[in-house]
Amino acid sequence: MLTSPIVTAALLDSYLSKGSNLDLKIVDCRFALGDADLGRKQYETAHIPGADYLDLNRDLSSPVQVHGGRHPLPDDRVLGAKLAAMGINSDTLVVAYDDSRFAFAARLWWLLRYYGHDRVAILDGGYGNWVKAGYAVTADLSETSTPGNFQPQIQSDWIVDIDRIKAIQHSPAHILIDSREPDRYQGKTEPIDPVAGHIPSAVNYPWQDVSTPEGFAFPVEQQRQRWMAISPDLEPIVYCGSGVTACVNLFSLSLAGIDGGKLYPGSWSDWCSY
């Protein structure tokens, strides 16, 4: 049984040494918002042995529309088929990694759980720590000979849309959490979206505060302390710029043992599009 959504490099290496005795799938989620092809190029150059690659834009999101944000949730049938083709079964342990302090691996972590698959974790320290620690890498591309039986079981109550946000944004039973950097939250700067600022009533919990600059998650007790100001009676609803790094805060909430957090997938890029 998976006891933590965090996996250390040493533990993942021990899983790999078990070979076929463990139903394991590693997924490389490296991506760069400023260079959409960089992550795949990095994967093709070197990656953790046996890893498949999923691209934020092409795999973990659906095409951008007028509304819905910059990274709409993927079509569950399309991504579900890809996950099955990668050999993922209902009991497969999926370990996601990136080199961006969980920014993209957390998107897959959240999506799999949203699809009803709880056996998923993120590699602590990411790819950079894996390499620094001296563990094996390869340029060989993964070839899955046996497809899995993965079938998404959507947890539809895990997400909210703009109408729901408008209905609850001043509700005493909910708290709206903006995951972006303080300067973007405060409207001092906006490098991506056409409008600066934040959704009225939202409080700011920057996603970068979940980990060290080297990409290691802060200890569980520190994650709990981070959320101490939020009453356990409140339902957290989390957003960011486009529904991606908000998943890092949902990951932090999970580490802290706080359940029930919801995602506004369209996030600020959807909100400011109206």
Detailed description of the structure:
By secondary structure, the protein is an alpha/beta fold. It has two domains: 6-132, Rhodanese-like domain (Oxidized Rhodanese, domain 1), CATH 3.40.250; 156-271, 3-Layer(aba) Sandwich (Oxidized Rhodanese, domain 1), CATH 3.40.250.10. It is built from ten helices and nine strands. The protein has helices at residues 9-17, 38-45, 76-85, 105-114, 126-132, 162-168, 182-185, 220-226, 246-255, 267-271, and strands at 6-7, 24-28, 52-53, 93-97, 120-123, 174-178, 203-204, 235-239, 262-263. Helix 4 (105-114) packs across helix 9.
Provide the fold topology.
Layout: E1 6-7, H1 9-17, E2 24-28, H2 38-45, E3 52-53, H3 76-85, E4 93-97, H4 105-114, E5 120-123, H5 126-132, H6 162-168, E6 174-178, H7 182-185, E7 203-204, H8 220-226, E8 235-239, H9 246-255, E9 262-263, H10 267-271
Parallel strand pairs: 1-5, 2-3, 2-4, 4-5, 6-7, 6-8, 8-9
Helix pairs in contact: 4-9
